[in-house]
Amino acid sequence: MNQWVMKPSLENHKKPPWLCMKWPTTEASAAAGCRWEEPLPIRALKNLSFFFITQMQRGLSRLQSGAAGRPHNQRSNSEKSGTGLLSPREQGEAEQRALALALSLKKPATVLEFYSPKCSLCRSLLPTILKVESQNSEWLSIVMADVENKLWLPEVLLYDINYVPCFVLLDSSGTAVAKTATPFSRLHVLTGLSYIIESKRPVLTGACEANAENL
């Protein structure tokens, strides 16, 4: 007795092509039975590229979050010098170099601000301090000093720094002549800072002559 066996058509079991030359659209894939997949080397390169891009993005995010959390003196001094994150010793040495440079200019006034990285009031004063320094840069320099950095311990003891922020006014020879009092509020600190800065503001020659003529 002969039995008829239905053999599957070979047309429905064609091997998928190794390289799909059609665009990876649904219509093209369904019509030709061609599933879009990149060759293995290309997929490997794409995975490696995605990995490196992800790592770079994470690194930039850490740097940005670290910069946002740094005290304002670290941002200002390190950004001016073009450096990135510094160790406590490197940061202290950079601040001391900034002070030495400011004193070497022999300006009438140099203000040394003692701050703490934990002091929110110190950070909030940054825009005002930068503005004051830029507007009076011809005769005034402002330098930051971290009271928690051991490199500043001699100055902390010398100027009797028991609170932050504390602004110490130095004359052209580097001698301390005044400092702000205990900070009770932001306004109190700014008032004290304005007072010690104005005490060293140079008097214009023209203004003196005009005042003398009016006498």
UniProtKB/TrEMBL annotation:
Thioredoxin domain residues: 106-174
Show the segment(s) annotated as Disordered: 63-89
InterPro entries (UniProt xref): Thioredoxin-like_sf, Thioredoxin_domain
Single GO BP term: cell redox homeostasis
**Pfam entry (one):** Thioredoxin
Which family is this protein grouped under?
Belongs to the thioredoxin family.
- Protein name, entry field: Thioredoxin domain-containing protein
Source organism of this protein record: Ceratopteris richardii (Triangle waterfern)
